[in-house]
Amino acid sequence: MSENRKPLLGFVSKVPSGTALGNSGKTHCPLCMGLFKAPRLLPCLHTVCTTCLEQLEPFSVVDIRGGDSDTSSEGSIFQELKPHSLQPQIGILCPVCDAQVDLPMGGVKALTIDHLAMNDVMLESLRGEGQGLVCDLCSDREVEKRCQTCKANLCHFCCQAHRRQRKTTYHTMVDLKDLKGYSRIGKPILCPAHPAEELRLFCELCDRPVCRDCVVGEHREHPCDFTSNVIHKHGDSVRELLKGTQPHVEALEEALDQIKRMNSALQERVEAVAANVRTFSEGYIKAIEEHRDKLLKQLGDIRDQKENSLQLQKAQLEQLLADMRTGVEFTEHLLTSGSDLEILITKRVVVERLRKLNKIEYSARPGVNDKICFSPQEKAGLCHGYEVYGTINTKEVDPAKCVLQGEDLHRAREKQTASFTLLCKDAMGESMGRGGDNIQVAVVPKDKKDSPVRTMVKDNKDGTYYVSYTPKEPGVYTVWVCIKEQHVQGSPFAVTVRRKHRPHPGIFHCCTFCSSGGQKTARCACGGTMPGGYLGCGHGHKGHPGRPHWSCCGKFNEKSECTWVGGQSTPRSLLRTVAL
Q1: Please, where in the chain does CATH 2.60.40.10 lie?
Q2: With contact defined as beta carbons under 8 Å apart, do 537 and 552 qualify?
Q3: Residue 119 burial (CB < 10 Å; 0-12/13-18/19+)?
């Protein structure tokens, strides 16, 4: 094989103008933040110093792949398949992306060296006027020149010695300052198995670079060629993969940009909604505070009104008491100390005064009570457009003033819902105007007091209560309606439950002649007849009641219950009329 060097991958090439290489992301370790020292390339394509990786805490995982594990898939399809077995595997986490990195058998030092990062570090050092670069031979002095033939950085002393040797006399030496415009000044990559040989060949079977000694040794029978000859094929395959990856990068960048825009929109929306919430809550708080002040003022007015009434009643009773005592004391003194003549002389005045005092009406109970309650769940209307709750009530329900109303108050039908309304009033006979009172209702059969009927009480929130129940059997029932364990007006009362409503089997007509179409044999329960052999009633003829009625029972109310009882004696012509 003859090595055919092409300019495709020239070892030294110029950097295009305006290109910034050697930035911190390419030359500095993400852990120690210093320039890379023996950088290692992780499977996630992040680069970290060897010493920094060795300081990471390893962990043990279970490898079920079997055989010798490797961090890459290079040559895996050519390896001998071994039985699967559970083997302990040592791993670390990438300090950049937290990806799991399975360490090879050699540990961290067996990971791939990032030669590109090493080259960038050297370029970074060159831009710093040689700071950080030491001689490759003595590893002691600062670098001044570079041997382009050996690809070695040399100090002044080693450079002189390099030129004195016969083998290296004609090597090209370049000052470091002249290399600052180059993109690559890296050292030659040597074979790890044969450190004296440079990696110039590539084994297709093992899919890795090799040296000349490897070709004649371990890779003797393997297809190998110079790297410059195979780079086109492998470079193209990498470029194809890159073409498939780049759209994902663009899509992900667009997705992240959308997420960023959405996050900005979200923040704006949150701030707008928060402003609405603050505006609403501030307005609501203001409305509640105003309603609170209104309630407190109302409470103060109620207190003043009740206190004034009590003070007025107190003054009246005190004056009446004083008048009574004066009359009593004067009369007692007259009767005990006065002479007969004195008593007779003052009798008329005393009697008139005592009679007048005895006719004065007064209440021995306070004219007002302390019944003031706050109903927090009762609607109080709108305040600045906000619905507010909470009212102050001074009314107290008086069971003796409450009224029961409804058509079904004293009558009901079996298996049909009966209902009535309870109207709650206060002691003055005024409607309560609100709900919330504890209403107890019981419907009990008179002959089965241990089987009460289930009742439903609906609070209409306006001082009225809708009571309903469904009796199961006919009979007499007793209904109790109580408030605060006291019967309301008219309670308890009896309800007569009759059997289920009997519908009319006949028709509601004006006369038999019209409803039957002129049939002579048709009859009617009213008993009317017509000349000419007609057995049913007719307008203006004998027995016609003179108004519409039921043909089955003769009742005049269309919505009444039928009282007809069918039997063998019932004329069949009547049923025929019913059918019509």
Answers
A1: 395-498
A2: no
A3: buried
pLDDT in tens, 264-288: 999 999 999 999 999 999 999 999 9
* H or E stretch at 9: none
The answer to whether the beta carbons of residues 403 and 465 sit under 8 Å apart is: no
For 574, phi then psi, to 5°, come to -65, -40
Specify the residue for token string 């108004």: 547
More confident position, 133 or 463: 463
Secondary structure letter of residue 546 according to DSSP = S
- What DSSP element (H or E) covers 303? helix 227-337
- Helical axes 227-337 vs 340-359, angle rounded to 10°: 160
Closest CA to 148 of 170, 130, 166, 174: 174
SS3 labels along 361-415? CCCCCCCCCCCCEEEEEEEEEEECCEEEEEEEECCCECHHHCEEECCCCCEEECC
Residue found under tokens 């007779």: 344
CA Rg value for the chain: 58
- 10 Å CB burial of residue 225 (0-12, 13-18, 19+) is middle
- Homologous superfamily (CATH) of 395-498 is Immunoglobulins (2.60.40.10)
Share the mean pLDDT of the chain: 81
Q: Which of 547, 535, 539, 542 is nearest to 577 (CA)?
A: 535
Q: How many CA atoms lie within 13 A of 389 on its CB side?
A: 4
Task: Give the Cα separation of 495 and 473 in Å (integer).
Answer: 12
Checking DSSP bridges between strand 373-383 and strand 386-393, what pairing results, if any?
Answer: antiparallel
Query: What contacts 353, CB < 8 A, 6 or more positions away?
Result: 327
* Residue 77 reports pLDDT greater than 50: no
Residue 114 pLDDT more than 80? yes
Convert the pLDDT of each residue in 482-510 to its tens digit: 988 899 998 899 988 888 777 888 889 99
